[in-house]
Amino acid sequence: MTTDKTPVDNLTEEEAAAELAFLAAEIARHDALYHGQDAPEISDAGYDALKRRNDAIEARFPQLIRADSPSIRVGAAPLATFAPITHSRPMLSLDNAFSDADVRDFVASVYRFLGNIAEGEIAFTAEPKIDGLSMSIRYEGGRLVNAATRGDGTTGENVTENIRTIAEIPDRLPAGAPDIVEVRGEVYMRKSDFLALNAQMAAEGRQTYVNPRNTAAGSLRQLDAKVTASRRLKFFAYAWGEMSAMPADTQMGMVEAFKGWGFPVNPLMKRLSSVDDIIAHYAEIGLKRPDLDYEIDGVVYKVDRLDLQARLGFRSRSPRWATAHKFPAEQAFTHVEKIDIQVGRTGALTPVARLTPVTVGGVVVTNATLHNADYIAGIGNSGERIRDEGHDIRVGDTVIVQRAGDVIPQVLDVVMEKRPAEAVPYEFPQTCPVCGSHAVRERNEKTGKLDSVTRCTGGFVCRAQAVEHLKHFVSRNAFDIEGLGTKQIQFFFESEDPSLSIRTAPDIFTLKRRQEASLARLENIDGFGKVSVTKLYDAIDNRRSVALHRFIYALGIRHAGETTAKLLARSYGSYAAFAAAMEAAADPGSEAWAELNAIDGIGQVVAQAIVDFYAEENNRAVVARLLQEVTPLDAQAPAAASSPVAGKTVVFTGTLEKMTRDEAKAMAERLGAKVAGSVSKKTDLLVAGPGAGSKLEKARDLGIETVDEDGWFVLVGAEGMSGPGAPAPSPDDA
């Protein structure tokens, strides 16, 4: 499956959900290649463009944000060759800006979130974004005690001994430094050192390296620290993790403190107040880029004051107070050799261009998504022309391929002067290439418009959909069953042996029992073996109890991504309560339907999709079989259990005067509350500002506790506010 090129503004929720599912999987794959193996398949610009498309879709459809979303997930799992280290505070990544307009939007969003601050009063730092390997170095009592890579953002690889070989990283901090210090930054290799190393490798007849970033990462992961020492690695400090005391109350002040402790910091870092000055500094750094002795791929902007950073807080993966302004990507010309059709889990037929291999930004491109029939024809979802003059795409065309923008890689345009005379318009299939079922473009009942996605009507009769559903079920953020990868799922699905066949999710959990009664033992089949089979059975048995949100997500309900699953788990607490509520919500006039729609982040389309899933008898039968084998665990209590609003459902209405609505919601969620968008019998507290209307009246009619903004602050007390300079997870992608 590939992503959809339909403009984000024209996507339906169904199309958006399908594309987000693909993007989550594709970006996770590239994360593993980049962070775990130092062997990226795409350029940084290509990776950024994938994330940009994902972020744009999530911004328009926040209710579809998945728990495995790239906006949540960071990095990749640590290598098995190094002991794991759990970060005391998560190492987070950054959102990206790709244009001056994006930067202006970022600055405006900061002012909008904080509210009541005059333009120009907020200062930002701007510094080069180093293309290296993120590192967290911990000191206790002034001594370096450990160092870890970012890993998946929560757990990294212990590379302490290798870090000690980098001469410019102090082994001891000077007197006066806090007792606990975690300095974070980027390990990199200078361009000059990289060229010298490659010259040495070539002289010795050995394979040379691809680029400084990968070489630095590989050097740091050497099991023999002597090899690391020979590579002359460098370090820039720019962030921090756990700190027992804060040496400064600004971002610039913290970096200056690092410099005072002996860490190298980037001399191009500046503090700026106006958007124009920020953008000018970006342009200045861009001009200096070719002459720098280290690789950079953009400029990072951060709100300077730490108390404002604390107020702005974090999204699930990234801070609201920082962004990375990336440098432009590259384009290349190639040929469309053929067009194939892939069928996804929801039956979407996605065309893929098979290209004559071409190098773009140092990466060989062989495939590009063509998204849907309209995109191939050169028209948008509303009938508007896309690409230059609305040219269609044909087999044999010379095309411009770009690895940045909405999707990666993408066919940007057609070179009409080079179109072969025999090239004919592409005819999109009317039947599924996998199962032969009729393929249709559904019509949106509300708008009367045809969806851009052509979808197979075969359902689970379609092998592609059934297989993709199983892959989804066992994926990392669903049941996460190790040993059931793509190859194994395909094998079990295609097996005609009743003791081996897995056609639906419950079959996974009966495999061992069926095998015990069979003569055709799995361990005797090529590709398995006794040890691997035992591990597979153990992995399956280890998932007979699973978190409620994982269970809901694994069901593969259309539009219900991981973030939605977490919202549902948190709102209903247990699977029994959730299932009963979904069946009751089939009545659109019921209280259950109103409560489902009241969950902040659950829109009507998502709610209807969930209700429709439980209205289908076949789905209920599969779930019933599954519940005979596994137990969904009740949702965990909120982390801030001591908070007076932990576990309560809170609704904000009216105009808040001391903080913005977004800031108030973020505060409530940080304290363990559930934020709803409308009032119902399940609402515990209404916070009403001036201008509150129907929600306030309904709350009073239902006898729900109501407070004003001052009352809210009294209720949550000091817990609700983060003090100036309070240490918080800092982004580690600068």
Provide a concise account of the structure shown:
This protein is of the alpha+beta class.
Topology (elements, then pairings):
Layout: H1 13-36, H2 44-60, E1 84-86, E2 95-97, H3 100-114, E3 124-130, E4 133-140, E5 143-149, E6 155-157, H4 160-163, E7 180-188, H5 191-203, H6 212-220, H7 225-230, E8 234-243, H8 251-260, E9 270-272, H9 275-288, E10 296-303, H10 306-312, E11 322-326, E12 331-343, E13 348-360, E14 363-369, H11 373-377, E15 398-402, E16 410-414, E17 439-440, E18 454-456, H12 463-474, H13 486-494, H14 505-516, H15 530-541, E19 545-547, H16 548-554, H17 562-572, H18 575-584, H19 591-598, H20 604-615, H21 617-627, E20 631-633, E21 649-653, H22 661-670, E22 674-675, E23 685-688, H23 694-702, E24 705-707, H24 709-716
Helix pairs in contact: 1-2, 14-21, 16-17, 17-18
How does this structure look, described?
The structure is a single chain. The protein is of the alpha+beta class and 734 residues long. Among the domains are: 8-64, Orthogonal Bundle (Helix Hairpins), CATH 1.10.287; 84-316, D-amino Acid Aminotransferase, Chain A, domain 1, CATH 3.30.470.30; 481-542, no CATH class; 547-633, 5' to 3' exonuclease, C-terminal subdomain (DNA polymerase, domain 1, Orthogonal Bundle); 649-720, Rossmann fold, CATH 3.40.50. The longest helix has 24 residues, at 13-36. The relative contact order is 0.11.
